[in-house]
DNA sequence: GCGATCAGCT
DNA sequence: CACAGCTGATCGC
């Protein structure tokens, strides 16, 4: 594979930046448009069922999660969750719950058609126009690194002019979106965990994947590159770049700033000219506790419930990757294995963390600690789930860990959190965040003292950009 | 028929 | 709301 950049191609991707870190030549309108397009969500799926099935054969761990699909010549496909729990049959999911869900969807869809006979045509027309529109969709400026042939987390724009190295900060959908097994636009640089996930989950051609170790300096296209652990999800990295002309950039990807970063040799020893910053919670109202405090609360609460009701099933919700420490700490302190389905188990095992791997169990009845997709943590779902476990448990205690789960009222006193509960099902939303809180963000910026900051989140509206910029100016004033 | 992408939703 | 997706429908090959 030849990734050489042709000599006549421009090396610089972006225009010069103004004092606020925005390109001088791009008008706010244009930029807002392209950014809102980006954020309006065009999503691909991380897994394709048929692919999963074929992968599954080679992974060889849990065939009970596969089901024959007669419509596909008896090919094995991954069961859906209700099927896995034995609630739904393989052909048509006809439980009351699943029927209700499908019917709701159908009704909404029908409602649209009935309400507006021309609605469908309009949709079609819009869709018909879409290709041209889609083609015009271009990579937002903040994903391009000026003075380099690099882009960051920009895979949904096809080949990007002038880009000969595509960086991926971490394996979350909104960052790798657009990456498929057909990727052929250039080398992808990422951490080794992210690299493994690209291979096993997306079947990206290995010849395009370039794994980099943390804290090791590489020279890529004449630029010195170092990845730093981002304290986000497994494999997440900050990208530190030193151009040959002396300019230094730091792209945080998604990260949770911490005091320990303040003593990282690279962050300590280089002045950063431009900081591309994860500004997810860049608002003083976001003041959630540390991960450790939240984990302590989760463990404490689990102990309390188990004491009251020893046959309690503890459930932790999680997306594809992230939040591992929540269930890892429950597992450690209660001395119980972690059950999760084969798909997630394969992903968790790919991290190569022996402590986590050794705690994973493939038998749901043997462990009182289960990890389920966040979307499953609803009262009715958990009730049905409980019923599939044959009286092994008689209550469910579930945790949804997300940064959005916080309220001004509870503040830092986690014990004030009120769960939603019905019957023997209890669900706690806990403010376990893998993004920086407002204060952590402020402290990080005050420590780093960059010349310019480019927000990479909440940057689509002029108001929020202005708001953030004035915060930055304040932080850097003294 | 299949994978990629879309709108709508949480 | 956003997070980081999930689902069914539709499009392109």
From TrEMBL:
<dbReference type="GO" id="GO:0036297">
    <property type="term" value="P:interstrand cross-link repair"/>
</dbReference>
<keyword id="KW-0234">DNA repair</keyword>
<keyword id="KW-0539">Nucleus</keyword>
<dbReference type="GO" id="GO:0005634">
    <property type="term" value="C:nucleus"/>
</dbReference>
<feature type="domain" description="DNA repair metallo-beta-lactamase">
    <location>
        <begin position="356"/>
        <end position="460"/>
    </location>
</feature>
<feature type="region of interest" description="Disordered">
    <location>
        <begin position="1"/>
        <end position="44"/>
    </location>
</feature>
<dbReference type="Pfam" id="PF07522">
    <property type="entry name" value="DRMBL"/>
</dbReference>
<dbReference type="InterPro" id="IPR011084">
    <property type="entry name" value="DRMBL"/>
</dbReference>
<dbReference type="GO" id="GO:0003684">
    <property type="term" value="F:damaged DNA binding"/>
</dbReference>
<dbReference type="InterPro" id="IPR036866">
    <property type="entry name" value="RibonucZ/Hydroxyglut_hydro"/>
</dbReference>
<dbReference type="GO" id="GO:0006303">
    <property type="term" value="P:double-strand break repair via nonhomologous end joining"/>
</dbReference>
<dbReference type="GO" id="GO:0035312">
    <property type="term" value="F:5'-3' DNA exonuclease activity"/>
</dbReference>
<keyword id="KW-0227">DNA damage</keyword>
<comment type="similarity">
    <text>Belongs to the DNA repair metallo-beta-lactamase (DRMBL) family.</text>
</comment>
<protein>
    <recommendedName>
        <fullName>DNA repair metallo-beta-lactamase domain-containing protein</fullName>
    </recommendedName>
</protein>
